[in-house]
Design a protein that fits this description.
This protein is an alpha/beta fold and about 550 residues long. It has 2 domains: about 350 residues, Glycosidases (TIM Barrel, Alpha-Beta Barrel); about 140 residues, Sandwich (Chondroitinase Ac, Chain A, domain 3). It has 17 helices and 25 strands. The strands form 6 sheets. An 8-stranded parallel sheet has the order 11-10-9-6-5-4-13-12. The chain has a 6-stranded antiparallel sheet with strand order 14-19-20-25-22-23. A 4-stranded antiparallel sheet has the order 15-16-21-24, with no helix packed on it.
Length: about 550
Amino acid sequence: MKLSTLLSITGLFLCAPVFAQQRSAKPIPHLEKRGLVTQLIVDGKPYLILGGELHNSNTSSLEYLRPIMAKVAAMHFNTVLGAVNWDLLEPQEGKFDFTLVDGLIKQSRENKMKLVILWFGSWKNGMSHYAPEWVKKDEVRFPRVKMSNGKSTETLNVFAAENLKADATAFAALMKHIKAVDSKERTVIMIQVENEVGIHGDNRDRSDVANTNFAKQVPAELMAGLQKYQTELQPEFKQAWEKAGSKTSGTWEDVFGKGPFGDEVFMAWHYAKYVNAVTAAGKAEYNIPMYVNAWISPVYPRGGPVAYMHDIWRIGAPKIDIFSPDIYQPDFKGIIPLFHHNWNPLFIPECAADSAGASNAYYAIGAHNAIGYSPFAIEERVADPVNGPIPRAYKILEGFAPVILDAQSKGTITAVTITRANPIQTITMGGYTIELRTRHKKMGYERSVPNSSYGIIINSAPDEFIFSGVNLEATFAPVAPGPQMAGIASLWEGIYENGKWKPGRRLNGDNISQSYAMTEQTNRNQTGTVLRFENPGPGILKVKLYKFD
């Protein structure tokens, strides 16, 4: 089906907004290059998503949802991610019920949170459980994926024009309605299109229509795109393509080889084209940022936007604004660089909500300029809504966000995560070498060594730094040439409220003393003083340094 045909589809949209349609009072949410980074712009200003994703089914009942939304807002989340399910939106073909959509938007507004809507259309976790009953029961019109044993699964077939037409029509109706009811308030700031798409149980679909497409020539559009991005292809993809012979024409097996790699490229291309068409239909109605998310694990649905398929998705789905990772694996620091490209800002829509989750939020925002972070099932997985790691971290970050966003644009921010396995890290910033380690002593008294310490560091002015962190201490030395010693001129603890600094205690004396062994300290170009975060955290410290010989 041609895209022009798809975008001209008009359904019978029974659209009765609960909010009056008014002239837009706020700029439309969008992505924009600000300084050195791409940022999410909401209400005309850079916006940092301190988000949380609701559990899948909890948006299907507004009564059930109401206390959950109040709980989430109390935990300092500024954004909630909630699902809109195709089966509930379009229970009969062409007849749309926006009651749940309107209620979700209304409850987000009442709790002073922005909203990211997750479109559970053709696929959720690679399956088609959220398709309407009228789709599920019509296997002829809406064909399914088949396994190598010839058996059909519940998963909708990516090659079927009727599947795409129905999904795109429903998604366009949703976006048209959101524009009608939300153009004044701009509560909805972003959309996730589908969820963790791909094939389970095989490397590709084995249906007749899939086999027919697999025997065809690789589209010229894909080969031209790979040539265009030849110098910046993902290393794992490039290596596998070169191993297959680096051919630029032929069938899928000719170009990408026989086996799992060629199968996955084939599926990735067709998933990308399908999701791009759905996205285009929605953006034609209301053009706000849209992203897709990738299942990250050793066993994942084949064909989704995992890192080494980014080149395929980038070419096949240009309407998608962000490829996002869902990270539950321990190698968080190793995964996020694979999703942070100069053409792809980092947003993490699913992740942990524990102390590691708080640490990862700091690291993604500070070290990789993430536009946001969002633990999954927050209403269930945050055990302590007041003193839990994520609520405490978000409480600090909500007022600190304007300063962070400004530093991201200027390139004056970084972050560290320190563990028992990696207890000391050194960074160079603003003319100083900063040694960071887990807080372990205070005036000679041993304290417990925590499993993880983390922090964001901002070089706010010459000789001045802002730190926010947990269980962290830092010492400083000037970068040569010049004076060899760095002393603390002043150190304040405090908080930020709406980006404005509110100082608390001026720290000195015992609060900054680390050692009185001056010969040993001066041999290391140290002064025996330290910037230190006490428990509990995180907190914020502003330090001004001076240099001397």
